[in-house]
TrEMBL record:
Keyword Cell inner membrane listed: no
GO molecular function, one term: polyubiquitin modification-dependent protein binding
Compositionally skewed regions (Polar residues) per UniProt: 331-342
Pfam families: Asp_protease, UBA, ubiquitin
Keyword flag Zinc-finger: no
GO cellular component, one term: cytoplasm
UBA domain segment(s): 372-411
Family: Belongs to the DDI1 family.
Organism: Panicum virgatum (Blackwell switchgrass)
Name assigned to this protein: DNA damage-inducible protein 1
CDD domains hit by this protein: RP_DDI, UBA_scDdi1_like, Ubl_Ddi1_like
GO process annotations (BP): proteolysis
Region (Disordered): 326-371
Length: 411
């Protein structure tokens, strides 16, 4: 159909358009004909402004109808997108509608900043304002860093403090480049590592067993042993204290009980701990005894030199309460750590002292909580972490400030 368009300077144009064409596409045609940018156009039909997302047929435009093209009200547009000093929108509802109506801008946002685009498309004004405020803070921080770098370029070469700042800036730049390279070439390094679990049966009771070659002994909790009907076999002569990062009470030992892996049964012995945050851990002693192989290529645990293979569980198959136990064990004195468990939270920590499940086992001294410890706590609290988490993290890493900070940021 043909549509007649009259511009503000009384220029008359006749355009061939499809009835299902959008108003935005009509503006694009007019931009070619009149050299007036699309964003500066206002089209009116029957005295009503036409919105970019509307179709010509849906608003009643028919063959031969007249459409008026007026210059947009730049002042009104500026008022709509006006921002407060903290980066939030002065009129968030109008700002949201304005950006939604600009399909080209929305397409750019969906590609460059999907989080902001989703907030604009969503219904939560508070979320939109929070993201706008966050983006403003990021821009201000970037501007501040750029100003500092520019100031350092013109700093006195004999100023010791300025040279230290230049050295720190160069070192940080190298770290940032290394981080960007890792994002591009090794992105999986930033993903959360799912621990290794397999399905087993202990005395006929199905369990999700945590496979850990860094654990000295195979461990079962008191509650789990009771559920499996094994607590009656507990030999309390092997009572003691398991010591490592924190400590846990050893209730005794179950010398032999059947476990089923795949379709075969194997004899297994357990150390029983009073550990509410751990259920069953398949440790190095039984891994060695039954010639197990942790095959990460095929993602299976091979037992008996390969006579049985059971797949490691995917994250969705691991019960939520077990995943919570993993998180708790990072900050609590978990029994897995007390027996040499090597978990994600303990990467880079020094080797724990060897322990035997005998009464009167020596207890390791916790990190000293003197002035130096308090200074580390204060420094990490200033980074935004609560004091309790900071103290637990420092204890977890024997007072190592850098490892504690890495753990807190990663957690």
């Amino acid at each position: 159909m043909k549509v007649t368009v009259m511009t503000a300077d009384e220029q008359i144009l006749s355009l061939d358009v499809d009835p299902d064409e959008s108003v935005e596409n009509l503006k694009a045609l007019l931009e070619v004909e009149t050299r007036v940018p699309l964003r500066q156009q206002q089209l009116h039909f029957n005295g009503k402004e036409m919105q970019n997302s509307e179709k010509l047929s849906s608003i009643g435009v028919q063959d031969g109808d007249l459409v008026m093209m007026l210059p947009s009200n730049e002042r009104a547009s500026q008022d709509v997108v006006k921002l407060n000093p903290d980066g939030t929108a002065a009129n968030p509802q109008a700002f949201q509608q304005h950006v939604r109506g600009d399909s080209q801008l929305m397409a750019q946002l969906l590609q460059s900043d999907p989080q902001l685009a989703q907030a604009i498309l969503g219904d939560s004004i508070n979320e939109l304002q929070n993201i706008l405020r966050s983006r403003h803070q990021q821009r201000m921080e970037l501007k501040r860093k750029q100003e500092e770098e520019l100031a350092l370029l013109y700093a006195d070469p004999f100023d010791v403090e300025a040279q230290k700042k230049i050295e720190a800036a160069i070192r940080q730049k190298g770290i940032d480049e290394n981080w960007e390279a890792a994002l591009e070439h090794n992105p999986e390094a930033f993903a959360r590592v799912v621990m290794l679990y397999v399905d087993m049966e202990v005395n006929g009771v199905p369990l999700k067993a945590f496979v850990d070659s860094g654990a000295q002994s195979t461990i079962i909790s008191k509650s789990c042993a009771e559920r499996c009907g094994l607590l009656r076999l507990l030999d309390q002569r092997y009572r003691g204290v398991a010591v490592g990062v924190g400590q846990s009470e050893i209730l005794g030992r179950i010398h032999v009980a059947p476990i089923k892996i795949g379709h075969l049964f194997y004899p297994c012995s357990f150390t029983v701990l009073d550990a509410p945050n751990m259920e069953f851990l398949f440790g190095l002693d039984m891994l060695r005894k039954h010639q197990c192989m942790i095959d990460l290529k095929d993602n299976v645990l091979r037992v008996g030199g390969g006579e049985v293979s059971v797949p490691f569980l995917q994250e969705k198959d691991i019960p939520a309460h077990i995943r919570d136990e993993e998180k708790l064990s990072k900050l609590a004195s978990s029994p897995g750590q007390a027996t040499g468990e090597s978990s994600k939270a303990r990467e880079g920590t020094p080797d724990l002292p060897q322990r035997t499940p005998t009464a009167g086992a020596p207890v390791a001294n916790p990190p000293q909580q003197g002035g130096d410890f308090e200074a580390k706590v204060t420094k990490l609290v200033e980074l935004g972490f609560d004091r309790a988490s900071v103290v637990q993290a420092l204890k977890l890493f024997n007072g190592n400030e850098e490892q504690a900070a890495a753990f807190l940021f990663g957690g």
